[in-house]
Specification:
Blueprint: E1 7-10, H1 15-26, E2 31-35, E3 54-58, H2 64-67, E4 76-79, H3 93-114, E5 118-124, H4 147-166, E6 170-175, E7 178-179, H5 192-201, E8 206-209, E9 215-216, E10 219-220, H6 221-233, E11 239-243, E12 249-250, H7 251-258, E13 262-265, H8 280-285, H9 294-303, H10 316-322, H11 324-330
Parallel strand pairs: 1-2, 1-4, 2-3, 4-5, 5-6, 6-11, 7-10, 8-13
Antiparallel strand pairs: 9-12
Helix pairs in contact: 1-6, 3-4
Length: 332
């Protein structure tokens, strides 16, 4: 990618962040990671931990006085730090606001004061809620259905406002259903791949929500990383780009590829039947396209299944308990 003297990656020890940092280092960049390890893991940086071009600081991005110094001499920022699990945002809205909104403002201001020449914000396709438009374009109506989605959208609006008011060169990427090796294995009920792979290792049935006909725009992490690189290399700023796979795939198709028994659990309110990114804008404006086919991505996940051997094993009872507040507040 285009050379920068120093790059900051917030949340660089997370799932996506670790893959991004690894690629940046391998391409010869100097990278500073800021991560409080609330969800990030040192193991995500294991392959490059001894590289002299990598610096890692344990800090909360919402702590502006502490993080400000880490931006001195920085000219490119990838802001990935966030609380990302959807379900707990229902009962921890203040934590999500601090991490995803207050943290974003602090990083934006530190970047502005440092005079960075590129700022890439990690937005979420969850801002579209239950979209009326499929495939969903960046111009679609915004309908966030839960606190996580609201906070990520607010962070995006602050980033675009810093571009408008302070001329900070911001690009926002709305990511769709990211999966890949080293995906999160936290104790929180979350992404379907983590749930299913842990169940497969334990010989348990896959807990399919509803009839399994719902589809998701599963996008492989290496394609996401390439989109970040493309955004950083581009002179375009003040724009939002969807990042998706170019397709949408049913949960039933996923379990067929994973091979295993299935049990069905209650469909959750507030969840879309389909997520499917319209990626015409990013294809046209950035030198990027998705390269990993869904079947190939699933095979890579199965080849790396041992990563999920310590992940929690969810069943119908434990999922019902974990998502009780979801039904309580979104079921009306």
């Amino acid at each position: 990618m285009k050379k920068y003297s120093n790059i900051v990656v917030t949340g660089g020890a997370g799932f996506i962040g670790g893959h991004l940092v690894e690629r940046l280092i391998k391409e010869g960049n100097r990278v500073t990671v800021i991560d409080n390890f609330a969800t990030g893991r040192p193991e995500n940086l294991a392959a490059i931990k001894d590289n002299k071009s990598l610096s890692v600081f344990n800090a909360d991005v919402a702590d502006f006085p502490k993080i400000k110094a880490y931006f001195e001499g920085v000219d490119c920022v990838f802001h990935l730090a966030a609380l990302a699990d959807i379900v707990p945002s229902i009962w921890r809205p203040l934590d999500y606001h601090r991490a995803n909104v207050d943290g974003t403002i602090a990083v934006l201001e530190a970047a502005r004061l440092a005079g960075v020449s590129k700022f890439v914000y990690t937005a979420s396709s969850s801002c579209y809620g239950i979209p009326d438009e499929i495939p969903t374009a960046e111009s679609a109506i915004i309908m966030p259905m839960y606190p996580y989605a609201v906070t990520k959208y607010l962070g995006e609006q602050y980033a675009l406002n810093w571009n408008k008011i302070y001329k900070l060169p911001v690009t926002s990427l709305r990511l769709f259903n990211v999966y890949g090796p080293r995906a999160r294995t936290t104790g929180t009920y979350g992404a379907v791949f983590g749930v299913f792979l842990a169940q497969k290792l334990a010989g348990k049935p896959f807990t399919v929500v509803g009839d399994g006909l719902q589809t998701r725009d599963f996008t492989f992490v290496s394609d996401i990383v390439s989109a970040f690189i493309a955004a950083a290399e581009s002179d375009i700023s003040g724009e939002i780009f969807n990042v998706g796979s170019g397709g949408t795939y049913s949960i039933n198709t996923l379990v067929e590829l994973l091979k295993g028994e299935v049990t069905h659990i209650k469909k959750r309110p507030g969840e879309p039947d389909c997520t499917f990114a319209n990626i015409d804008k990013i294809l046209k404006n950035l030198d990027w396209k998705p390269n990993v086919k869904f079947t190939d991505g699933v095979k890579i996940m199965l080849d790396n299944i041992e990563h999920w051997k310590t992940a929690p094993i969810w069943d119908e009872k434990s999922i019902s308990k974990e998502t009780a507040d979801w039904f309580k507040y979104l079921g009306k």
